[in-house]
Design brief:
Elements: E1 2-6, E2 15-19, E3 29-39, H1 41-48, E4 61-62, E5 67-74, E6 86-89, E7 102-106, E8 110-112, H2 119-123, H3 126-139, E9 147-150, H4 156-167, E10 171-176, H5 181-187, E11 191-194, H6 200-203, E12 207-212, H7 216-222, E13 226-234, H8 241-246, H9 251-270, E14 274-277, H10 284-295, E15 303-308, H11 312-320, E16 327-331
GO molecular function: oxidoreductase activity
Domain Enoyl reductase (ER): 12-330
Protein name: NADPH:quinone oxidoreductase
């Protein structure tokens, strides 16, 4: 099969189109013909080697974390999927590789594709959908009447988070540029801050939950927006000790992550704020719940551009510019 591979860890390393062996499935796996995939900043971070100490891949490896496609074959123990099913997924860490024509996915990571979406639209959902679901539903436990601040509302995570937070009954604030104000309002944002003209720290206060997806400076300012007893959830770091324990990392890595998160934890504690780092995990059951919301019209995908498979590297470069509205998708096959 054809796939785009990373030959070595290096910042901005080029992706190479290569002929790779067809996947071999185990008893609990499903072989999927990939029809569309999506680009995430996580792809760039993995390629650059930012996670190789605790999430190592042996080059050459296939990049890519989102897929929508059709089941070709199911393993001996799989009962919930069969050949011909239209599915979508974010494969678990250690088994990614969706910039390819086929992939073997653990059945537990897979869900039936929302019937109302095209393959390209469905491919835009898994990683950001699971990230937001786990932040707002699982960890944040957002309730009606609460106030939620979603940073970068026009991005892939932001567009999904605004819609889910509104569905959960929250009042939603977000940041964006003036060009995207109408977009985030249409998605449900109640308070919109043009980050080029206003400082959100000066405008917002008393929020129950902040979803941080930006840099360390923005994270530090976000603490001041959260009310005592509220939650600050970051998907962009710094990782904390709980994350290290989840990955069963050794004492050295736990110490490193304690040092990395020490400053923000101290500041959060002083204000009575609960800080946590979220590193999304694969979960087919949660994708099934998300599919129900999409088919009910509660959440709609926001797709900026669709690139052909041959231009996968160009799609990655476009996402790295930070100008995409919503998600960038690659059509792998029809």
């Amino acid at each position: 099969m054809k796939a785009f591979v990373v030959d070595k860890y290096k910042k901005k390393a080029p992706l190479r189109l290569a002929n790779m062996p067809d996947p071999v499935i185990g008893a609990n796996d499903v072989l999927v013909r990939i029809q569309a995939t999506a680009i995430n900043l996580l792809d760039s971070k993995v390629r650059d080697g930012e996670f190789k100490l605790f999430l190592p891949y042996r080059p050459p490896f296939i990049l890519g974390h989102d897929l929508a496609g059709t089941v070709l074959r199911a393993g001996a123990n799989v009962r919930q999927f069969k050949a011909g099913d239209e599915v979508y997924a974010r494969p678990r860490d250690g088994r990614v590789g969706t910039f390819a024509e086929m992939i073997a996915v653990d059945a537990a990571d897979l869900a039936l594709k929302p019937t109302s979406l095209s393959m390209e639209q469905a491919a835009s959902i898994p990683l950001v959908g699971l990230t937001v679901w786990q932040a707002l539903v699982e960890v944040g436990k957002v309730k009606p009447g609460q106030k939620v601040f979603v940073q970068a509302g026009s991005g892939g995570v932001g567009t999904f988070a605004i819609q889910l937070a509104k569905h959960l009954g929250a009042t939603v604030a977000t940041t964006t540029s003036s060009a995207n104000i109408e977009l985030v309002k249409c998605l449900g944002a109640d308070v919109v801050i043009d980050y080029k003209k206003q400082d959100f720290e000066q405008v917002l206060s008393g929020y129950d939950l902040v979803l941080n997806s930006q840099n360390a400076e923005t994270l530090a300012k976000s603490v001041n927006v959260v009310k005592p007893g509220g939650k600050l959830i970051s998907i962009s770091g710094p990782p904390d000790v709980s994350f290290a324990k989840t990955l069963k990392l050794n004492l050295f890595f736990r110490f490193v992550m304690r040092m990395l998160s020490r400053s923000i934890l101290k500041k959060a504690k002083s204000r009575g704020v609960d800080y946590s780092f979220l590193f999304m995990r694969a979960d087919g059951q949660q994708l099934g719940e998300i599919a129900k919301l999409i088919d009910a019209g509660v959440i709609r995908p926001v797709v900026d551009k669709v690139f052909p498979f041959a231009q996968t590297a160009d799609a990655v470069a476009y996402v790295e510019t930070g100008r995409a509205k919503g998600k960038v998708v690659v059509a792998v096959s029809k």
